[in-house]
Amino acid sequence: MNKMMMAVLVAAGAMGLSYGALQAEDVVVVDDEMGLSPTSVFDDPSPKAFDYPEGFDGKPLTPAYLGAPPQIPHNIDDFLPINADSNGCTRCHDKPARIGQKKVKGIPTPMPESHYVKAEDGKLSRSGARYFCNQCHTPQAEVNDLVGNTFSR
C-alpha cells in the first residue's frame, strides 16, 4: 500500500472517531431508575421480624403453587444454622422406613425418597446433596412481600 492511501485511511478513521465522540452525550443513570424496583438499589428491604402466632398448631398453609415444596410448620430457630455438618432437621425427618406411610398428627413427616440415594441392596441413605433444607422449604408465616409481586396460582 502506498503512503498516500495509508494517509487517507488514517484521516478517514480519525474523522470517524471524532464524529462519534462529538455525538456522544453524558449518560447519567440514577440508582432508583435501575432495575425493576421503584426504590434505590441501596435500600435494604430486609423483612421485619415476626413471631409465630399464639396457638400455632402446625397446620400447613396452602402451597404457593402446584408442586411447591411443603413449608415448615414449626419454628426452626433452635435448628440453625442448617449446613452439611449440622442439620437438626434430620433428627426427626430422616426416617426412610416411614416413606409412603399415612401421615399421623404429632409424628414428623419423613423426607421423600427423592432426598435419598438407593444402594445396590435397596437400602436408602440420605443424599449428601440434600442437606440445606431451607433452600427449598421455608418456615411458614403470613408475611408481606418485600417487593411487589403479581404471581398468581
Map the helices and strands:
Elements: H1 3-23, H2 89-93, E1 116-118, E2 124-126
Antiparallel strand pairs: 1-2
Description:
This protein has a domain at 77-135. 17% of the residues lie in helices and 4% in strands. It contains two helices and two strands, in the order ααββ. It has helices spanning 3-23, 89-93, and strands at residues 116-118, 124-126. The mean pLDDT is 79.
Key features of this structure:
single chain, 153 residues, mainly alpha, two-stranded antiparallel ribbon
What is the β-strand count? 2
As a percent range, the share of helical residues equals: 10-25%
Mean pLDDT, all residues: 79
Query: For the terminal residues, how far apart are their CA atoms?
Result: 69 Å
Instruction: Output the radius of gyration.
Output: 29 Å
Element pattern in H and E: HHEE
Secondary structure tally, helices: 2
Beta percentage is under 5%
Class computed from helices, strands and strand pairing: mainly alpha
Q: In terms of per-residue confidence, which ranges show pLDDT below 50 for 5 or more consecutive residues?
A: none
Which overall shape is indicated by the principal axes computed on the Cα atoms?
elongated
Main sheet properties? 2 strands, antiparallel
Strand order in the largest sheet:
1-2
